[in-house]
Amino acid sequence: MVSTYRIQGATGEWEVVIGLEVHAQVVSKSKLFSGAATAFGAEPNTQVSLVDAAMPGMLPVPNKECIRQAVRTGMAIEAQINKYSRFDRKNYFYADLPQGYQISQLYHPLVGEGSLTIDADEKAGIAEDKVIGIERIHIEQDAGKLMHDQHPTMSYVDLNRSGVALMEIVSKPDMRSPAEAGAYVRKLRSILRYVGSCDGNMEEGSMRADVNVSVRKPGEEFGTRTETKNVNSVRFVMQVIEYEANRQVDVIENGGTVDQETRLFDPGTGTTRTMRSKEDAHDYRYFPDPDLLPLELEDDFLEECRASLPELPDAKRQRYENELGLTPYNARELTAEVETFGRFETLLGVAAAKIGKSESAVATQVANWALSVAPGVMKSLGDEADASNATAEAQASILAMQDKGEISGGQAKEIYELVLKTGRDPEEIADTEGLKQVSDTGAIEAAIDDIIANNADKVAEYRGGKDKLFGFFVGQTMKAMQGKANPAVVNQILKDKLG
Amino acid sequence: MSVDKATVAKIASLARIKMGDEELERMVPELNGILDWVEQLGEVECSGVEPMTAVIENHLRLREDVVDADPKTGGGRREDVLANAPAAEHGFFGVPKVIE
Amino acid sequence: MTDLTNLGVKDIRDGVAGGEFTAREVAEAFNAAVAEAAALNAFIVTTPDHALAAADATDAKRAKGEDLGKMGGVPIGMKDLFATKGVQTTAASHILEGFKPEYESTVSQNLWDAGAGMLGKLNLDQFAMGSSNETSYFGNVTSPWRRSGGANTDMSPGGSSGGSSAAVAARIAPAATGTDTGGSIRQPAAFTGICGIKPTYGRCSRWGVVAFASSLDQAGPMARTVEDCAIMLEAMAGFDPKDATSLKMDVPAWEAGLSADLKGKKIGIPREYRMDGTDEEILKSWEQGKEWLRDAGAEIVDVSLPHTKYALPAYYIVAPAEASSNLARYDGVRYGLRDLPDGAGLQDMYAATRAAGFGDEVKRRILIGTYVLSAGFYDAYYTQAQKVRTLVSRDFAQAFGQCDAILAPTTPTASFPLGENQDDPLAMYLNDVFAVPASLAGLPAMSVPATVNSDGLPLGLQIVGKPFDEQGVLNAGLAIQSRANFTAKPEKWW
Q1: Which of A408, A414, C62, C370 is deepest in the core (most CB within 10 A)?
Q2: What is the C-alpha separation between A305 and A291, in angstroms, rounded?
Q3: What is the residue extent of each domain of chain C?
């Protein structure tokens, strides 16, 4: 399926070609080549070792966990894992790069070709699922941070991030619209968070994308691309593409040519501009880092990496649909985020046990609760709700009472409101607050007998064929029972008595 | 391959070493002398030969992921890291203002 | 009492342990000798207090009957390429002038742990780039040796470990550390009539040693006897988890394993080392060396190292390429010199700082290295050089199928006057033509003094061993030493 996203230029339609290089910070306690901590938000230069500051004679020693996380990520995108890889030095001068080179992997990356699938999303113009190729994943060092606004004539350098491990995940130029790029980043983020190799926190910079954009007339060769660096949200990625594609079309249609260059995004204006500091840095003089031997992975290491992989988003979604019988919509919503499915699966387990049925038998009920009922109650309460009261135990109790017909859907919401506000036990609430349905046939029969006796005309009309009046009798009965009668029991007795 | 003054100027700029005209001119024959001499390597038949990666048979050891396991390669020593800095303020290194 | 400064490592260690003299007496004697020898310019800074403190610690241990360590009571010179905590570490460069590391290199720490003390930081060629010790920002080192009958011409102590060689030869230090990237221990040792061994790549940790060319740099001892080298190497070497290229192997008891009996050993003579331009007297000493080893019981066999000719040009691509990258960190941001012209931006500051902070030879090598790695040239130069390096290494592996160690001259000439080769970088590079092949292959190699030439200048012989076979190298060295009876020493003129 060809994307229909087009830029309308003066000379006709243009197609956008997009490739993304996502830099994902690897989850590890210490840095890629030193023992300094990686935690976010520390005081400047307090998480800097002599190695990170590139003191004379300092040497890199690789962190096994960083390698492991990158390998697991590669496995999650079904990529080729290279048992032999090497570290190369990328040489350039900048104040955030103490060594004067970044240790990266150019010639022999750790992870080779793989792919991920972005999901159909008609609203976004993605007609069907689309496979996006991933060229490679390599690991490299992050740079430090420069601050420009703290001193009139100086920039300040903080090296806390210097040497933190990054995975650079390089896509093929397979995307054709901002929406596809957005979906790619979201899906990649989801996979990384499932695997646990990156926290996906874009605000803290744990995931940044370099956005490569070019335009061409449909069917023609690729145009010259620009690379917009360090874009740190899905929305910005889409804005960059939108802006760059239109800018490039304008340049070309006005007789100019697109320069292959590095650009910078300004979130304030939604525009991009040439990055001055990188203008002359294109000859990186890559060569194998002589401080590091080739990285050779053993089979048992790879086996451990594979064994430790969790169920991944696509497989989980399939299972939710096929085994749990959830709707495609529910399955997608529940599997999108690690937190969502985590909460769901916990609740499902507890609820099934409490109810005494299989997980698949209660899955739809639990899914509806988890996706719409529970969030609705939580939202309506606003600040009054204490989220810590939303335990799986409490919610499962409510679901179990509902399943047994002890409470109605409305009562379930009322009980949950009180649970969220007070943390009280749901069953105790149902009892003491009178939030229980009456299933006692004696009481319901008595009420119905009264109603039939007092509405002889309506009974006659019903029996004469006016079926719609059944609802009237239900309503009257529920009213008489003050809304607490079990609707199923009411229906059954009414049917029996009305004939 | 031999280098001219413009090429030497470009390399010097890439290597961030400021060089005046006179120095560049002096470097041209010196570098060419060395380059001419190393180019004899082109004579060596190297097809099927792998470039050397490890001079002595050895395997890359990986480190366990432990913070500050060895203070010599750990963090939390800002004083030491900044001790020799030509300009350090408020816990930062200072450099001339950068326009990105 | 004997003049303590005539003693070497073993004699000092044993003398202190046996109570013949105290470590403090030794340190004081050498501190005084160092102070008198300013004319050699062997030291960039002297650290008499360090030597005394270490000596006092040793004496105190002895009083308590504790183990004094492998180097207990021995004061040494430390090449100023090793980071020493709180003591200026410059690599003989302006760009690191005033730099006081907050850390101690693994090798120097190992030596202090073994009971050694430090007389001072020794001069060297800037960033270890040079073969005559004429590229130091802190001035040339002058060899204690002078030509017999010649005028008082200042001679080169060799390089890059020229401060080390001069100090040991002049007996102002019983031993010194050196580093060898392409001959920087062996060539100066040969020029000054002392011993020096570069161990197998990875034996000595590179952590805290200012890097020149990472895949080649190896530290090693320089001393006046093979025994002293064995003792000191034992103290210096050892696995270091902070260096990813460090060998995870136990350090053998090299001193205890010393034996000059070479029965059953085969010594290879590489025919390609007979090069045009090699000094006749050097060739003669090589012949003499064969005789000595034969006399020690070894069988002499001819071997071939066909790519010898290409080792030096390959080295002059690989080493500058690595250096151009290793020296990128000297940028005026975190330590060392900063040259910030008025109104300069960051990149201008880098260029000005590096222009002011690096000497000519360093700049030359950075430019060569930058060029050979640059786009379009990488494969033709760097990749080709690394392939040639593989071939050089393979040559050795094949030769070691036929022999246990290789004997060759250390250098093609004896020491030359300071200034003589300064204007011709290539002529200077050729000094290391015999030393570089073993460096490219990471092999243990040693220079031992053989004789003096007709000018009265020392000539060295080189033994190259199999990987990890420092013992074989030391033993062959010992066999030469015990037959050469090299007793010549420089007349004191300083």
Answers
A1: C370
A2: 26
A3: 4-261
What distance in Å separates residue C75's CA from the closest CA in chain A? 24
Residues 64-93 of C with CB under 8 A from A: 82-83, 89, 91
Alpha carbons A294 and C387: distance in angstroms, whole number = 16
Give the relative orientation of helices A328-335 and A359-368 as an angle to the nearest 10 degrees: 80
- What is the rounded CA–CA span in Å between residue C357 and residue B17? 10
Whole-angstrom distance, CA of residue A232 vs CA of residue A22? 10
**Token pair for A382:** 């606003």
Number of H helices, E strands in chain C: 16, 11
Question: What dotted CATH number matches C4-261?
Answer: 3.90.1300.10
Last residue of a domain, one of A276, A305, A334: A305
Classify burial at A499, counting beta carbons within 10 Å of its beta carbon; exposed 0-12, middle 13-18, buried 19 or more.
Answer: exposed
- Domain of A406 in residue numbering reads as 313-432
**Model's pTM, two decimal places?**
0.92
Q: Is A53 on the interface with C (CB under 8 A)?
A: yes
Task: Measure B67 CA to nearest chain A CA, in Å.
Answer: 5
The alpha carbon of residue C413 and the mean position of all alpha carbons in its chain are separated, in whole angstroms, by 18
> Rounded distance, CA C33 to CA C173, Å?
8
Q: How far apart are CA A115 and CA A26, in angstroms?
A: 19
Interface touch A287/C335, C-beta < 8 Å: no
In this structure, are A181 and A275 located in the same domain?
Answer: yes
CA–centroid distance for C188 within its chain = 7
Q: How far apart are CA A300 and CA C299, in angstroms?
A: 47
Residues of C marked active site are found at: 79, 160, 184
Residue (of C330, C215, C346) closest to A55 by Cα position: C330
Give the number of beta-carbon pairs within 8 Å between A and C. Answer: 98
- Considering the domain architecture, whether residues A125 and A233 belong to the same structural domain is answered as yes
In A, residues 123-162, which contact B (CB 8 Å cutoff)? 146-148, 150-159
Q: Please count the residues of chain C.
A: 494
Candidate from C89, C241, C347 with C-beta closest to A56: C89
Residue ending a domain, among A415, A432, A449, is A432
pLDDT for position C125: 98
Q: What domain count does chain A have? A: 3
The two three-digit tokens of residue C51, written as one number: 């030597």
pLDDT score, position A4: 81
Residue with tokens 């006081």: C100
pLDDT of A18 higher than 90: yes
Does the beta carbon of A283 lie under 8 angstroms from any beta carbon of chain B?
Answer: yes
Distances (CA, A) of A358 to A118, A341, A366, A401, B47: 32, 18, 12, 16, 66
From the CA of C103, how many Å to the nearest CA of chain A?
A: 9
Low-confidence ranges of chain B (pLDDT < 70): 1
Q: Map residue B48 onto helix, strand or coil.
A: coil
Q: Cβ–Cβ of A54/C334 closer than 8 Å?
A: yes
The partner residues of A228 in beta bridges, in order of sequence, read A211, A263
C405: its two tokens: 């160690």
> Residue C423 — pLDDT band, cuts 50, 70, 90?
confident
pLDDT in tens, A343-352: 999 999 999 9
Asked if C193 and C452 touch (Cβ cutoff 8 Å), the reply is yes
> What is the predicted pLDDT for the residue at A498?
84
Pair of tokens at residue A11: 């000379």
Q: Give the DSSP H/E element, type plus range, for residue C266.
A: strand C266-270
For A57, the closest of C208, C213, C370 (CB atoms) is C208
Dist CA A474 CA A452 (whole Å): 11
Dmax (CA) for chain C in angstroms is 72
pLDDT value of residue A436: 84
pLDDT at A186 over 90: yes
Q: Is the pLDDT of residue A492 over 60?
A: yes
**What angle, rounded to 10 degrees, do the helices at A392-403 and A359-368 form?**
110
